[in-house]
Amino acid sequence: MRFQQTGAVTADAALPAPRARARTRPRGRLVRDLRDRSGRVPRALTFAAGDLVVVSGLPGSGKSTLLRRAADGGGIDSQDTRERWEARMPRVLPYALYRPLVRLAHYAGLHRALRSGAGVVVHDCGTQSWVRGWLARAAARRGTALHLVLLDVDPGTARDGQRERGRGVSAYAFARHRRAVGRLVAGVEAGRLPRGCASATLLDRDAAGALRRIGFRGPS
């Protein structure tokens, strides 16, 4: 089944699905809620050529797993940059000492991807609102759109996800993430999208697990 919403986002589903809880906001801003759909969810999210997509959620919610499985080109994920640097660094060297270099390398890679003009899927931790602002400005310069894909996972499940991958964040950092992501979810549920976003899609763990592609249509 294929259905089109606002001409910007296409969702492909393997099974007939009930009507998504979606509202068209002023200026074409779309909120689509794919949570609690009992498995009847799209298998793909397809955006217009050249659009930018930011995937956000709590640490351990499954953002990196989703990008690696579904994002065209694997997406731009700071976790990938961190793992490349960790492979080159002495194991006894704490990550905190070279973390600024990892972040610099990640943002340099993102800058190169944005300059290419191609559609890009980007990992976002949720606490760096300036990154979404950067992406919104980049989309505006291109004449394309920025879209938010937001994983709404409860804190306990996210903590389990951190343990499964063998890497967690401090209690203080996790609390910051909870506040930031909580504000994002509440805003999207109320139809208030982050500035510059043309659409937002809310996913729970089941909906995220069903996605097999986040990608872009070819140029018209």
UniProtKB/TrEMBL annotation:
Region called Disordered, residue ranges: 1-27
Protein's UniProt keywords contain Acetylation: no
Keywords, ordered alphabetically: ATP-binding, Nucleotide-binding
GO molecular function, one term: ATP binding
Positions with biased composition (Low complexity): 1-19
Keyword Nucleotide-binding: yes
Protein name from the UniProt record: ATP-binding protein
Organism (species): Streptomyces termitum
